[in-house]
Amino acid sequence: xxxxxxxxxxAATKAPKQxxxxxxxxxxxxxxxQQFDAPAxxxxxxxxxxRLPIGLDADTRQKSVEMLxxxxxxxxxxxxxxxKHHWQVVGPTFYQLHLLFDKHYEEQDALIDMIAExxxxxxxxxxxxxxxxxxxxxxxxPPRDREEAPVQxxxxxxxxxxxxxxxxxxxxxxxxxxxxxxxDLVVSNVMRTNELQVWFVSEHVxxxxxxxxx
Length: 214
Ligand SMILES: [Fe+2]
Description:
Layout: H1 14-27, H2 58-88, H3 94-121, H4 130-136, H5 149-177, H6 180-202
Helix pairs in contact: 2-3, 2-4, 2-5, 3-6, 5-6
Bound molecules: fe (ii) ion.
């Protein structure tokens, strides 16, 4: 496209250009505070729309969304517990655990996105905010205090076990209802990741001799 400079432009084109500049200066002003008199939300939490044609009935979607929001809340909790422990870990295994905890944090964070997007695909509304996660999760809340590494690991193993027990239950229910996508997500992603992390974390609390075989 030919580029017209101010120097070569005909005089007749100058006035409309100024008018459009004025208009765009007005339209870029943000319209604030719309949340205070907003109409009804697009979709209420807890409801499931049938918008996407994915071959699953309303009842199946509703049940899967409820299970996945629980799994989402618990996965957010264990993710954040990993970051807490990544920051607060102390002791001779500091470096290993510092790195391992952050790796597991990243893996749990990836699971959260998969779970939340599955909820949206099913027509549900995914939980998102920390306060809502805190109200929903069944993973016991750790203290704000800094704890010894074996205590951190024990808390993580307990959280993994809670999630894994739910995974077995949810996978079977999703399978029975014909929701293969949810079954696959729960088994292939959430369950497999949590099982692997249990293995890596558990080895840090095995009471084994360091120098001499007993
Ligand atoms: Fe870090």
